[in-house]
Each structure stands twice: as structure tokens, then as C-alpha cells.
Amino acid sequence: MSPVIKKWMFCLCVFLQLAALERQIFDFLGFQWAPILGNFLQIIVVILGLFGTIQFRPRYIVVYTVWTALWVTWNVFIICFYLEVGGLSKETDLMTFNISMHRSWWREHGPGCIRRVVRPSAPGILDDYSYVSVTGCIIDFQYLEVIHSAIQILLSLIGFVYACYVISIFMEEEDSFDFIGGLDTYSYRQPPQEHVELKPVKPVGRSK
After folding, report:
1. pLDDT at position 121, please?
2. Which of 87, 100, 127 lies closest to 34 in space, CA to CA?
């Protein structure tokens, strides 16, 4: 494989890793367990695809290609979730596996957001109970999540096309090696020779 192809594949994997790591950090801050699991698998599979490209392992790249299709589907679902398409609601605990009431970290810490803790003044409410008021956000948190997912989809589609291209190159190289006997180990074998029975030869006596 050409070093240029490996270089471009390496650069693409670096961008994918940086995007996944950035998203993983903010999902951890928001305790979004479903996206955290997805980001972790994305990081592992991208490393696997890069290893397959460098070490000439087409099967690893096939795994990366299949996972990329699933990753794009997952990000489309996240976009639908935060835009509340198809009966989905961003106010549910789906992203936390229904084990907590945490929401996206961007909900309270988005660009321009002012977070204020408001103590309830009504009687009968515990003193340690409070409300969080968020105002002044330049972009709502759901649109930030949509932007993150859209970036992941764009990079993944580029990676999918490039992975298919790398697989086709591997297949062409394997076919050419097979044609010239480069990978065909049987081409080096000589046809079996017939067994020849050896018999002792009597020495011819000298004439007197």
C-alpha cells in the first residue's frame, strides 16, 4: 500500500479520535452513560481500523466499516432524540439508562449560560432542596448535542468511504500476488516425482 494512503488514513483516525475523546469528556461530566459506552466503543474500533491499515489486516478494516455504519445510525438516533422526532423526548432518562436524572452537561454550561441556584421559599420544603435556573444561553443545549452528532456523522461517512477504498486496494494487491505466485504457496512446490528403485550394481571384473 502507498505511504500516502496510510498517511491520510492516520490523519483521519486522529480526527475521529479527537472528536470522540472531546465528546466523551463532556458526556462523562453529564453522566450520560449510553453515549459514554458508545464513545468508548468508537475509540476502540478506530484504533483497530488504524492497526489494520498499518499491519495489512483487511478483517480489522471490515470490522471498522461495519461499526461505522452502526455509529452513524446511533448518532442519527441522538439527533432525533434531542430534536424530539418520532415521539422521543429529551426530558427522559434514556441517555442515563434510567438510573439517574442527569441531563446533558451543555444544559447548564453552554455558551453564555448563567447558572443560578434558587432556594425555594415555599413552606414545607426541605432546606437542602433547590432549583437550578439557567438563563442567557446563546445556543440551547439540544442544538449543541445535534452539532456534535452531525460532526460525528460527517467524519464517520468520510471514514467509511475511505475504509472501503482501502479494502479494495487490499483485494487488488492480494489478487495480483496470487496471479504472480506471491502469496500462492503451492506455486513453489514442484510436482511429485515418481519413486525410483535403486539396485546395487555389480562391479565388472578385470580381464586377465
Report:
1. 60
2. 100
Return phi, psi of residue 133, to 5°.
-105, 130
Q: Is 131 exposed, middle or buried (0-12, 13-18, 19+ CB in 10 A)?
A: exposed
Phi then psi dihedrals of residue 117, to 5 deg: -95, 120
Cell of 60: 480489522
Is-contact 158 4, C-beta < 8 A?
A: no
Classified as helix, coil or strand, 200 is coil
Instruction: Note the pLDDT tens digit of each residue in 133-182.
Output: 788 889 999 999 999 999 999 999 999 998 898 888 888 877 665 554 54
Q: What is the pLDDT of residue 78?
A: 96
Q: Counting runs of H as helices and runs of E as strands, what totals does the chain give? A: 5, 2
